[in-house]
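Long-time lurker, first post. I've been practising inverse folding by hand and with some scripts of my own, and I keep getting stuck on stretches where the structure tokens seem ambiguous. Below is the full token string for one chain I'm working on. Before anyone asks, I'm not after the true native sequence, just a reasonable design that respects the backbone. If someone could post their per-position residues I'd love to compare against what I wrote down in my notebook.
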């Protein structure tokens, strides 16, 4: 019986010493892991922030480039028929979108959905406006209908998308 007491008396301090040694040795390792993780996160933020800002800039530029008031002067020629203009404008929107589709990686889902809605809204505007003229009519006639319809809207899908982009960017900056 005396031996059991001696063993317990010996085990309690040695177990306590082992636990203290483990804690003393393991603590710096845990602290180093936390520091490494924080450093990785900081590097990721430093790397991604400029890329995300560039994505917001490119998407704003995309929205500007597909608005009829910006796109028509750039894409329209005097000798175009309504059909030629319609095809040219739809192709321009598709090319601009394809050029910027990768930007969805850097913006929120709601913003990306709003970008798509803006693109589809402009595409629909052009398509519906084209039904109001003959295919061989002057492209100028189609352009006038597009601009008049676009200008009559209180808020356009492009403006709504730009507003949402701005809000998300402000949240990103304030994080």
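-- Answer (accepted) --
I ran through it position by position. Result:
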């Amino acid at each position: 019986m005396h031996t059991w007491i001696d063993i317990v008396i010996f085990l309690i301090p040695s177990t306590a010493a082992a636990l203290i040694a483990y804690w003393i040795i393991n603590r710096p390792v845990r602290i180093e892991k936390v520091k490494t993780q924080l450093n990785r996160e900081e590097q990721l933020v430093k790397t991604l922030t400029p890329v995300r800002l560039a994505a917001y800039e490119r998407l704003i530029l995309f929205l500007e480039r597909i608005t009829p008031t910006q796109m028509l002067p750039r894409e329209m020629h005097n000798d175009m028929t309504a059909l030629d203009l319609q095809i040219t404008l739809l192709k321009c929107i598709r090319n601009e979108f394809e050029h910027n589709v990768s930007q969805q990686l850097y913006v929120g889902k709601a913003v990306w959905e709003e970008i798509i809605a803006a693109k589809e809204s402009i595409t629909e505007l052009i398509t519906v406006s084209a039904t109001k003229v003959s295919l061989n009519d002057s492209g100028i006639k189609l352009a006038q209908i597009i601009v008049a319809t676009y200008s009559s809207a209180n808020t356009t899908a492009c403006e709504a998308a730009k507003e949402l982009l701005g809000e998300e960017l402000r949240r990103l900056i304030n994080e």
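A couple of notes from the structure itself: Residues 52-174 form one domain. The chain has one domain: 52-174. Happy to go over any region you disagree with.
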